[in-house]
Design brief:
It is a single chain. This protein has one domain: NAD(P)-binding Rossmann-like Domain (Rossmann fold, 3-Layer(aba) Sandwich), CATH 3.40.50.720. Helix content is about 30%, strand content about 15%. It has a 7-stranded parallel beta sheet, sandwiched between helices. Bound molecules: nicotinamide-adenine-dinucleotide (NAD). Nicotinamide-adenine-dinucleotide binds next to helix 3 and strand 5.
């Protein structure tokens, strides 16, 4: 690929994958509203607020693929979610359509299906059950991806990311964890397969006790290798396991299911 765009490059996942994605393209265009530091030799830095349609058009122009991590990544007031995750995603897909960019990774979330129980086993056909406005915004992104695929042939890997951190932060995340190495391998498959389509992929490592089934997207050839369950001993030393009726033990989205609708950032 000539030029790959990485949005949200200053964020928690973006700042790690920024280095790991370099081999995928001649030029990695990294973007955010926050400080991105110095550009590596293969990088170009473009600051851009996703809610600005004209700026997003300029950001996307010349890119052959997009890894879209930018936006609000937890439950927040609608006044923050709407510009970044609703208008921002619309702006991104419109820019892709107008500039001829045909392949995107959309970072969806487990919170698009957070109100399913942990006893439910979901595959790529599972309908959304968002656990907050953030989850709703991810469902919107999934719908835009589907629309732009059916109408314009833009291919998107919709990745319902579980928990992508150096290691699971609590017991629930043993089931939802995805290591950075497994995510990098997935992105490699997404941008190297000849026909991608518009699949829903659960972004998780090969975790014992997982709730998600990726057999519908086996054609990608992705074989995650890590396992969140290996952190059980460490987590047991660090914290108590959640009580059986706690949201973190009942719902796939855990404590997001009991978040209020935040009216302002001070709530
Ligand atoms: N970390 C996880 O485990 C996880 C789980 C599920 C989904 N996701 C999704 O993956 C993506 C990356 O997650 P993360 O944990 O790195 O999130 P993050 O919050 O650390 O990073 C998001 C980045 O987006 C940028 N951003 C916010 N609003 C913006 C705007 N209006 N214009 C341009 N940039 C803006 C922020 O500055 C930030 O650097 C997000 O879309 C998130 O919803 C992450």
């Amino acid at each position: 690929m000539k030029r790959l765009l990485l949005t949200g490059a200053a964020g928690s996942i973006g700042s790690v994958l920024r280095k790991k994605l370099a081999p995928l393209a001649e030029i990695l265009r990294v973007s955010d509203i926050n400080d991105l530091g110095d550009a590596a030799p293969n990088e170009e830095i473009v600051y851009c607020d996703l809610s600005n349609e004209d700026d997003v058009y300029k950001l996307v122009k010349g890119c052959n693929g997009i890894v879209h991590f930018g936006g609000i990544s937890v439950e927040k007031p609608w006044s923050l979610i709407r510009p970044a995750n609703i208008e921002g995603v619309y702006n991104l897909y419109e820019a892709a359509r107008k500039t001829g960019c045909t392949r995107i990774l959309f970072a969806s979330s487990n919170h698009a299906v957070g109100f399913y129980k942990q006893t439910d086993y979901l595959d790529d056909k599972a309908l959304p059950r968002p656990d907050g406005l953030y989850g709703v915004s991810k469902v919107f992104g999934e719908a835009i991806a589907s629309l732009y695929h059916d109408k314009f042939g833009i291919e998107t890997a919709i990745v319902r990311i579980g928990s992508c951190f150096p290691e699971p932060k609590n017991h629930r995340m043993m089931a939802t964890w995805m290591s950075y190495d497994d995510f990098t391998a997935l992105i490699d498959c997404i941008f190297n397969i000849s026909q991608l389509g518009c699949p829903i992929i659960y972004g998780i490592s090969d975790n014992d006790g997982k709730w998600w089934d990726n057999s519908g997207t086996a054609y990608l050839g992705w074989q995650p290798k890590d396992n969140g369950r290996n952190f059980l001993e460490t987590l047991d030393k660090r914290m108590e396991r959640p009580k059986p009726d706690a949201p973190d033990a009942v719902y796939q989205g855990g404590y997001f299911t009991v978040d209020p609708i935040y009216a302002s950032e001070d709530d």
